[in-house]
Write a structure and sequence with these properties.
6 strands; alpha/beta; 11 helices; six-stranded parallel sheet; 257 residues
């Protein structure tokens, strides 16, 4: 039997994002980096299909080896929400958590009265009248994808992507929409996600106001957690600044072991 480091990828990406970091995992811990549901060519979610974070959790658990004795969870963005949900549902002991900006708007929105004006304005813009992000009729269109991609990166990112990358994104766009729906409606209150294990919460210095606020709220209910801000990085620091992410993970493993 052995512990497993389960790497969970984010919306519109894949296990490839974790390739630079698997070498940081200590000897004796098995690495598992599965494809989330709806991303493999043989597993694309058809338009209109329903999906919940419980379905994602069950899928992720099914990817674990039968002899797994405990879990270290490493995750980003939507994958962070899935990881926190899995940690609450798993029968296996959770050994540690390393989460880069878990996206949980469904927990943040009821707490907006406690947030700064810039967070309130950002969330209201995302979920205000006429917003396409939760409109199933707009889901999967280039307008929807562009708004999603550009929000988490920078304006013009979608237009600058190669045609092949755009085609791959269009193929998984319904699952992407369902993930946005899940993070908007399914999270419990932040207090539900309190853990008594080594926990590293990571955010980018240049991330969105709302993503930073979610990290702050989780830190409040996990006072023993280590909170790291990676200088010069945004929400996609996993991809844009791998050397800083690798250093954070290396430090996390020291604490976790």
């Amino acid at each position: 039997m052995s512990d497993v480091a389960l790497f969970i990828h984010s919306t519109g990406t894949g296990p490839f994002m974790w390739a630079p970091f698997q070498a940081t995992v200590p000897e004796g811990i098995r690495v598992v980096a599965p494809v989330n549901r709806g991303y493999a060519p043989h597993d694309l979610l058809p338009r209109g299909a329903d999906f919940s974070v419980k379905d994602e959790v069950q899928h992720l658990l099914s990817q674990l080896p039968d002899d797994a004795s405990g879990l270290h969870l490493v995750a980003h963005s939507y994958g962070g929400f899935a990881a926190l949900s899995l940690a609450k549902a798993s029968a296996l002991p959770i050994r540690s958590l390393w989460i880069y900006e878990p996206v949980m708007f469904g927990a943040l929105r009821p707490d907006l009265s406690k947030c700064s004006p810039d967070v309130v304005a950002e969330v209201e813009a995302l979920y205000g009248a006429g917003n396409a992000m939760l409109d199933p009729d707009m889901a999967g269109t280039d307008v929807w994808i562009e708004r999603f991609i550009d929000y988490w990166n920078r304006p013009g990112t979608w237009q600058a992507m190669p045609d092949k990358a755009k085609q791959l994104t269009r193929a998984v766009s319904w699952k992407m929409f369902k993930e946005v729906w899940m993070i908007s409606h399914e999270p419990e209150a932040f207090a539900h996600y309190a853990f008594n294990v080594p926990f590293t919460l990571v955010r980018g210095e240049k991330t969105t106001a709302a993503a930073g606020a979610i990290v702050d709220h989780l830190a409040q209910v996990n006072p023993a957690a280590t909170v790291e801000t990676l200088t010069g990085t945004g929400h996609m620091g996993i991809i844009t600044h791998p050397e800083k992410v690798a250093a954070s993970l290396a430090q996390h493993w020291v604490r976790a072991m």
